[in-house]
Amino acid sequence: MHKAGFVNIVGNPNVGKSTLMNQLVGERISIATFKAQTTRHRIMGIVNTPEMQIVFSDTPGVLKPNYKLQESMLAFSESALTDADVLLYVTDVVEAPEKNSDFLAKVAKQTIPVILLINKIDMTEQAKLGDIVEKWHGLLPNAEILPISAKNKFGTDILLNRIKELLPDSPPYFDKEQLTDKPARFFVTEIIREKILLYYDKEIPYSVEVRCDSFKETERNIHITATIYVERDSQKGIIIGHQGVAIKKVSTEARKALEKFFGKSIYLETYVKVDKDWRSNDRELNAFGYNPS
């Protein structure tokens, strides 16, 4: 009998959810940087074998929202509690277990299998790990607990085998050749946004959104035009940089990453525009795809 199911990954910001997702899927689907609030959407990565299909879902880090964009991000995370066959709750060895206790209480009420993953175990001593496991067992008594290091691939094979055991019997939900539910244009915007996260400081990355305006593919290359949106004229100046040096660097690094992702030569044109307060505007958020429904 064929097995298939949805395995949703949830947890607080910056605990390694996207790194874990990329390790499990075997492809670079989710942005994984050192900065919090990197993932803004719910992103599916699909693992296929002849006997099985696992639909992994990476979600934004759980946080108390301060504006409409963060409300949408939280809705993506909470929706992952309602349609999972297996739930992966990711924490790490440094965050306080009581953080975002409201969301944790919802996880504790789940009747589906929950696997609590204590990530980044390479950052703590073995003696302290036992205390961390015991504390988490008190908070999520029905969860299986597995210490891992997603970055170093420690424990990920054990996790994958356990997921296979827990999957229900089912035909596949997606075509067996499909890797994700997102279109090519989505990954264009994510890769450009990742480079902005890496190369700009402070509030700039969190005030930025990217839209892929055109994606024209031939057998040998892809021509892409994309617009980077910011909220303020001053932010536009920072993104462009003196004599365009900053935007040129971002575009060059994004082009290299896109060529690796798509396996083709990329021609990338980037523009910068001001869209005031897009993070708090329902119409703009819908246009950027931030509608959990």
What Rg, in angstroms, do the CA atoms define?
A: 20 Å
Q: What are the secondary-structure elements, in order, as H or E?
A: EHEEHEHEHEHHEEHHEH
Helix-strand category: alpha/beta
* Helical fraction: 25-40%
Give the overall shape, derived from the CA principal axes: globular
Query: What is the spatial order of strands in the main beta sheet?
Result: 2-3-1-4-5-6
Name the beta content range: 15-25%
* Helix count from the secondary structure assignment: 9
Main sheet attributes: strand count, strand direction, barrel closure = 6 strands, mixed
Descriptive terms for the model:
293 residues, alpha/beta, six-stranded mixed β-sheet, three-stranded mixed β-sheet, 9 helices, 35% helix, 24% strand, globular
Can you walk me through this structure?
The structure is a single chain. The protein is α/β, with parallel strands linked by helices and 293 residues long. The protein is built from 9 helices and 9 strands. The protein has a 6-stranded mixed beta sheet, sandwiched between helices. It has a 3-stranded mixed beta sheet with strand order 7-8-9. A hairpin with a 3-residue loop joins strand 7 (209-217) and strand 8 (221-230). Helix 6 (184-199) crosses helix 8 (245-262). The protein is globular and about 55 Å long. The mean pLDDT is 87.
Topology:
Blueprint: E1 3-11, H1 17-25, E2 43-49, E3 52-58, H2 68-79, E4 86-92, H3 101-108, E5 114-119, H4 126-139, E6 144-147, H5 156-166, H6 184-199, E7 209-217, E8 221-230, H7 233-240, H8 245-262, E9 265-274, H9 282-287
Parallel strand pairs: 1-3, 1-4, 4-5, 5-6, 8-9
Antiparallel strand pairs: 2-3, 7-8
Helix pairs in contact: 6-8
